[in-house]
Amino acid sequence: MDKVLKNDHSEETLFEVAEFFKVLGDPTRIKIVSALFENGELCVNDIVNLVDVSRTAVSHQLRILKDKRIISYRKDGQMKFYHLDDAHVEVIVLLTITHLSHH
Amino acid sequence: MDKVLKNDHSEETLFEVAEFFKVLGDPTRIKIVSALFENGELCVNDIVNLVDVSRTAVSHQLRILKDKRIISYRKDGQMKFYHLDDAHVEVIVLLTITHLSHH
DNA sequence: TCAATATGTGAACACTTGCTCACTTATTAA
DNA sequence: TTAATAAGTGAGCAAGTGTTCACATATTGA
C-alpha cells in the first residue's frame, strides 16, 4: 500500500498562521510585544523609550499590532495605555525564546 | 517610588526571535513546515505536490529553512528527504493554530 | 481661546523579498 | 557514455515593507 501524504491543516489556517508570524517577525514589533508583557501596560511614550525607535515608527507598528488583535488599549485622558490582547502571545514568544536557546 | 520599566530580554535575543518568526511568516514556508510535521519526512517532489508551488520556488524556500536550522535532510541516492530539525517548531506552530482558533 | 502635550496619518522612498527563467550539478539506468 | 531524473543556483524583477517627514487630531491647563 502506498504511503498517503497528509496535508491536514487547511490552506486558509496556514495562511493565518503565516500572517500572525509575519507580524511578530519584525524587530520593532517583537520589542513592543516583549515590553508589553514585561510591563503589563504602557503608554506610547514609555514604549518609544523602551524600544528605541522613533515615535512615528512606533505609532505605525502599534496600528499593525492592533489591527491583528495582538494588542489593544485603554484610553485615559490624552494618553493611551496599550496591553497584550491575549496571553497566548506571551506563551508563544517565551516558548520560542526557549527553543532558540537550545541551539 | 516610581514604576521601573522593564526590558528583560536582550536586544539580540529579541532580534533572533523576530528572525525565527519571519521565516515561519511566509505562506510557502509554513506550508512546507506543516507538510513535514504531518508526514515526518518528504522528498522535494512530494513537497512540491503538497504545497502547490513551483519546484524552483520550493528549492529556494527549503534553503532558507535549512539555513535557519528549522529543517534538515537525509540523502538517499539522487533524492533528499527533508524533515523538521527540532520538535519545538511543531509545538510552536500548533500552539499558534490553537491561539488563532480562539478568535 | 491659546499653547502645550500625546498620539495618529499619509505620501514618499530605500530596502527587502519571493517568484520565475535559464542554467548547473549529481545520481542512476540503459 | 548518454539520457533521464532529482534537486539546486543566480540574476532579474515586480510587489511588499518599515522608516522618515510633514501635517493632523485630541485633550488638558493657563
From TrEMBL, chains A, B:
The keyword Transcription belongs to this UniProt entry's keyword annotation: yes
Pfam families registered for this protein in UniProt: HTH_5 (PF01022)
UniProt superkingdom: Bacteria
Keyword annotations: Cadmium resistance, DNA-binding, Transcription, Transcription regulation
HTH arsR-type domain sequence ranges: 9-103
Name of the protein this chain belongs to: Metalloregulator ArsR/SmtB family transcription factor
Species the sequence originates in: Acetobacterium malicum
